[in-house]
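DATA CLASS: polypeptide
GOAL: derive structure tokens

***
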Amino acid sequence: MEEIQQRRFWLIELIAYWEGRLTTTHLREFFGISRQQASADIRRYRETHPGNLPDYQHSDKAYLPSPEFERRYISADVAEYLNWMAGLSTRSLPDHPSCQLSNLVLKHPARNVTPQLIRPLVRAIREQRRVEVDYVSIAKPNREGRIIVPHTFVNTGLRWHLRAWCEKNQGYRDFVLSRFHGQPEVLGKSPHSADGDTAWNTEITLVLQPDQRLSPEQKAVLQHDYNMEGGQLCLKTRAPLANYLLKEMQVNTKMLDGRPEAQQLVLVI
């Protein structure tokens, strides 16, 4: 199969599998093709893999995946879909050899996230709806029902979170995506949106610098590594994401490591 066709089949599966509905708009906007070409690509996919996408559903104005949908071009890892949504997928890069270099990306273990979980959440985000979910945490390992209003998927490095209004806590919270269980139930509209998430809309700047216990030569290495200005690294982020960013940077704010070579960076502000 030619590469262009394979990439379009990949996107067809990615959208149908994780969102639960597919329209020509997805292909038109991502690949910059006409409605006729997008329709032809979907028709060719349906002919190549009969049974995955039944006839067009006029009531939903989309193609809906069948219960027996078989993945041919995508993985079962939700990170593939969420990375594409965030614009991080390498599938969006040019395929010409002159644009490619040998590389390897360290893969994190896939989290246990199903399409039956993602589809209602995607709908709730797009339509600003309440969702009834079952959620567990390390502190409360027993399944607990709650109603949330999600507004953003967040990649914290090792895993994906969901930022949402929580009716139980009467505030915005972060939820680990793989700790939801079952299939969420989409409920009515909610007045709580990302606009009302004060912390989310607050931008802060983290100022990091080399551990003062390091030698001048060691400090110079880190200053060069991070392209520091004036011996400091300034990182802007949303307030709720600050702790995740510090963990990614391996900056311990509660205690200094006994070895400055291990600590490397410290938080100034």
Remarks:
- The beta strands are 129-135, 144-155, 160-166, 171-176, 180-189, 203-210, 233-238, 265-267.
